[in-house]
Amino acid sequence: MRIAVWQARGPDDGARRLARAAAEAAAADADVLVTPELFSTGYGAPFGPADPALDRRLKLIAAEHDIALVASEPHGGRITAVVVGPDGELLGRYAKTHLWGPDERAAFVPGDGTPLLVDLAGLRCAVVICFDVEFPEVVRGVALAGAEVVLVPTALDDPAVATVLLPARAMENGVTIAYANQCGAPFCGSSLIAGPDGAVLARAGDGEELLVADVDRPEGLTDYLAARRPETYRW
After folding, report:
1. Where does the sequence pass through the membrane (predicted)?
2. What is the pLDDT of residues 37-52, one digit of tens each?
3. What mean pLDDT comes out for the span 106-116?
4. What's the CA gap between 38 and 36, in Å, rounded?
5. Is 24 designated active site?
């Protein structure tokens, strides 16, 4: 699988900029493009309303460029992310489980934690959103459910999450993490793709950027999942 991560600043009325990013990612032979949290509306209070035409646009963009898309939008009172396959089929929707700060909690309802797992380019992929990935239980849960890749739209202002936490989260679960952040103050950029050995395959700076990296199933990694002893963790 070849993953593209688009770091950019929303909002993006009519998904016009996303269409250009999808064309660029497809030209780089990417199989999937991950975009930032609430990119269509822009992130921040007061949060923009849902765009009822966005899903249709995403389907058209994915099919036109033969690339899967992960795009975050407000939907049904929740912060969500949809996965659209390269044929334009909507493969699923995930609702953010862990809301960040009083603004999000005032504006949105949290999801119930139901995971979203889809097959893309021969790998099992999970989708979570921003603050979710900072909880070890979330990534461990989808890894135990078979995820090999975790795709994460985000809107983050703390670079330590991207530089310290995410490589460790990838390594401890043997998964690749593709993390697409917004950029421009107050956001920190620093989007990245981290491999299952914790190695950073690509990292963005603080401006708009498209990252591309190849993902595979490396051998010789410590299998933390197989070595677990959950019967001893009950305390």
Report:
1. none
2. 999 999 999 999 999 9
3. 97
4. 6
5. no
